[in-house]
Fold:
Amino acid sequence: MKVALAQLNYIPGNIRYNTGKIITAIEEAHNYGADLVIFSELAIIGYPALDILNMQEIITECMSAVKEIATCTNEIAVIVGGPSHNTGVYGKSLHNTAFFIHEGRIKAMVNKTLLPTYDVFDENRYFEPGDTFFPVDFKGKKIALTVCEDIWEEQPCGDKGNVRLYGVTPLDELMRHNPDFIVNIAANPFSHSRIKIRESIFRENARKYHLPLISVNQVGGYTDLLFDGSSTVIDANGNVTEKLPAFEEALRVIEIPSMASGTPEENSTDVFPTIHKALVTGIRDYFNKSGIKKAVVGLSGGIDSAVVLALASEALGNDNTLAVLMPSCYSSSHSVTDAVEMTRRNNIPHHIVEIEKARLAFDGMLSPFFRERESDITEENIQARIRAVILMAFSNKFGHMVLNTSNKSEAAVGYGTLYGDMCGGLSVIGDLYKTEVYKLAAEINSTREIIPVNIINKPPSAELKPDQFDTDSLPPYEILDSILYRHIELERSAEKIIAEGFDSDVVNKVIRLVRNNEYKRRQSPPPLRVSSRAFGSGRRIPIVSKY
Amino acid sequence: MKVALAQLNYIPGNIRYNTGKIITAIEEAHNYGADLVIFSELAIIGYPALDILNMQEIITECMSAVKEIATCTNEIAVIVGGPSHNTGVYGKSLHNTAFFIHEGRIKAMVNKTLLPTYDVFDENRYFEPGDTFFPVDFKGKKIALTVCEDIWEEQPCGDKGNVRLYGVTPLDELMRHNPDFIVNIAANPFSHSRIKIRESIFRENARKYHLPLISVNQVGGYTDLLFDGSSTVIDANGNVTEKLPAFEEALRVIEIPSMASGTPEENSTDVFPTIHKALVTGIRDYFNKSGIKKAVVGLSGGIDSAVVLALASEALGNDNTLAVLMPSCYSSSHSVTDAVEMTRRNNIPHHIVEIEKARLAFDGMLSPFFRERESDITEENIQARIRAVILMAFSNKFGHMVLNTSNKSEAAVGYGTLYGDMCGGLSVIGDLYKTEVYKLAAEINSTREIIPVNIINKPPSAELKPDQFDTDSLPPYEILDSILYRHIELERSAEKIIAEGFDSDVVNKVIRLVRNNEYKRRQSPPPLRVSSRAFGSGRRIPIVSKY
Structure:
């Protein structure tokens, strides 16, 4: 049997666009001689569609799309994900369904049983779980058809190890009918730690049931969530026989591996090339799917904005990227020369807008009220906010979108100005700790010096007052990031982190800063998610609380 | 049997504070001669605690708190809500539990069975449902103990009518054991349409099972969510015998009503006195619980900022409220005089900061780049952003929190400037449509003219260019708000709204604006929720999408 894996990039809620893509791929797969073509989870509506799933007319449109798809299935069978109505007497109004369509008709509907409701996932909000388990018959074979989480018997859960969230194991149920192979349609988001875990889950399932497994994942950027695709075919011995590319659309026709034919597990090495690709995809898709062409970046001469500019230029083209340099009287001379050098090397247009006039204007306007007070963080924030006003003015005047340049370390401890350097439509490196930003910069520079090494080598500074360095307010980033990773990703308490040997004053200070800056993060642009725990929808803390 | 209802105001995650309050109330109830004191759902950790529930050490602290509470129960029994560990072999790590504690020991634990996961609720994210049903024995009586949603057999769901989300009805199960009365501990948030529905659910349950019902709700502001309390006792005929006050802490000792003794359903009339109380509570608790004393409001001379200032002054005291007037060359003379008159009448300190200098500075800085372009929305936004810089400067310098003054109509259609008038730590009237803001202003003025009528009577204008009125860009608010209410609260599609007789161009334009401004709302301060569908956690739309 020839099976096509269709790894495509969808737009949430745009049923017409998604269905058009699906139908084109069906035709293509048919031309390649495939008997069956497999699309990803909820392909028709895109993942995550969130509360668009509550809009009745959109669900009606999805059902019409399934019918339209059915008209293309006289010769080829299709497995495609979409929402379907729950026809039971109770429960959420929808199921998360894998449609098996052939000969112009829906031959089977398999409803997802295990509905992830943790981290960035909210599936219990929309879907009623499936509770029947039967394979799909096709050309004398029985397909164990599953949706994403259905083949995850346990979930990796940081320090808690693997946890078992559900009382049923769909594959165990399906095995009673002796299926011939497993199909898993997925919308499995990227994180740099997840890729390896995901592949090992595929391998374990194939080995455990001694069946080949085909998993098709969606690809692309979906606001903050990135999907790498990496659709995979595994033989019955748990070896990979096919792997579709990461962060690219692809259609590949394969024969179902009947015996051991794959390669043993590769040792994934450096994650930064993948993170690089992920972030470029995230920018490109945010812009493409929103119909925005151009980006503007405030280029300070520091590493964060340089990395963001490099990624933006790669994603959108150097001509579609504008750098704005906004030096103040506190900017060092190398800030401007390094920034200009960065734009020159990469042929990126730039403007220099000195902020001194605005700074003096605010000074004059506010001094009658502030007169007796020392200069403090207020005046530093004013500079950052003047820069935001300028960037947003370029955005409003020319239609560029401002890219945010904050990193995860800053976002965590609130080392940034709300409505200042925290502005922008999308946070590009908001899920990378500062120490990771350095590694990404090295990766970006691996073939040529895109980012001048001067920018990489200087000590980090906000340059909002004379001779200011980040380490004046914060612990060195190696220590800060180690603490943050343990607290955010691994959810360790201060006590546990201190017990690991970190200084207790530093740990308590860092965690207090994380806690007290929830209000800033709530108003931040969405960060492109590359870790297992990004700020945003994956981490929900009440602003007013004490813990 | 004498029962005390303890309607208290908690802080999410602050176990020590919450437990202290609970223990004080137990002692007080004991002094009043109560046999049993009832606290609300998850009282120990506060509701909603969101991902604080994932922090293992906090859960450990909660369990210690239960033990500490137990030491106070030698003579009085306690029903109190808190998280407990799921000891099963699978599932989420916690239950949402009602603890029945007496004679120094936990005598029973009842786990919530129906876990709301819709609108602002995410309970499936944290909790495993309960699945056993037994009454609690106390002094010869059997108590049917339930947690909030457990007594909601059906959920009101806008245009879809009542829907049945769950396959089990806990009270039906409990009735097999012939209980004597029903206790429901709740964290049931306020919305102006919900109050009546909630009471009717209580009444229906009491009538259906012919049993008295006691419901205890938490009270106060919890970031965006407001809880009115309104804890209620119903007799076996479905009549109210006791009702605790809205938006106030209270401890009341009652006798369980043995027969028909209550009053028939009252017809609730005007909701605006309650909304008024709700918003004042929301401001006060945000500040109190965060340890912030003072607020600053940008006072434009229009109705929105006047209403916010009036509410802030009532919540925090006139001396703790600062009004900043920031006129530009486009401000009408009445803007300043009306605004000053408002502060004078209410004894609120104010400053006047002209923004012209900053406007000219930005003009000069940007004109080399904008030279050939007409003046447009860019220049209007710059004015709004200059005002935000000024407000935030007062905030940074003096520790005042900026209160946001946007209304729901503006937030819906994006009629506001990101990092400009959309700034602030809390959105006070962000869940009130403009037409509702007028009604609230009338309510605020019902005893004396707190807001000068001039401010209320003038046509709405952003005053960002000469002779500008809101109706230049938007339909009249009566029409706009009618369309928005149908689309946001009732989730009606454009087609349905047009079919009701609204102009199709207007409807399509309004809904397009709602859709296209998701990115602005994502970066908005949390709005105090008073309706059945507020922007924020109750409405989740992907920024990059098309529907």
Notes: Chain B has a mean pLDDT of 95. The CA atoms of residues 24 and 72 of chain B lie 10 Å apart.
